[in-house]
Design a protein that fits this description.
Blueprint (H helix, E strand, L loop, with lengths): L1 H37 L5 H12 L16 H10 L13 H13 L4 H12 L8
Length: 131
């Protein structure tokens, strides 16, 4: 009977260590991802447009598209940095989260372009003031 409890205790300790490594690994990765995202260069106008979108992400789309205040090149850059191909491979691609986020934003009435930027801000963490 004593050996049974020893094995159960050992198994419980192993589970605690593995779960700790998984959770700690995710936290470390997210810290590195936030640092990487802050290193991505964006202009003040791009930052303001992205922030305007970010503030209404939980509700309805803004009445006027903040991305319209940017030039075509600035919008193309913002969409690029929010894309899956821009995210560093060391952080994974997060494709399931990316698709789910995009669909969620689209279902709430955001345009394709707005949903793409919001999805990139969610997954890539670029342009976020809270990251």
């Amino acid at each position: 009977m004593t050996w049974t409890w020893v094995l159960i205790s050992l198994l419980a300790a192993i589970v605690v260590v593995v779960v700790g490594l998984l959770v700690g690994g995710t936290a470390r990765r997210n810290r590195r991802l936030r640092a990487w995202a802050k290193s991505v260069a964006i202009s003040p106008a791009q930052a303001e447009a992205m922030h305007a979108l970010w503030t209404c992400r939980a509700g309805k789309p803004p009445s006027s598209d903040p991305l319209d205040a940017l030039t075509e090149q600035e919008v193309a850059y913002v969409v690029n940095i929010c894309g899956a191909s821009f995210r560093s491979r060391e952080f994974g691609d997060a494709s399931v989260v990316r698709v789910a986020s995009f669909r969620s934003f689209k279902s709430r009435g955001f345009s394709d372009r707005q949903a793409a930027v919001l999805t990139g801000m969610t997954v890539n963490m670029v342009g976020r003031r809270d990251a």
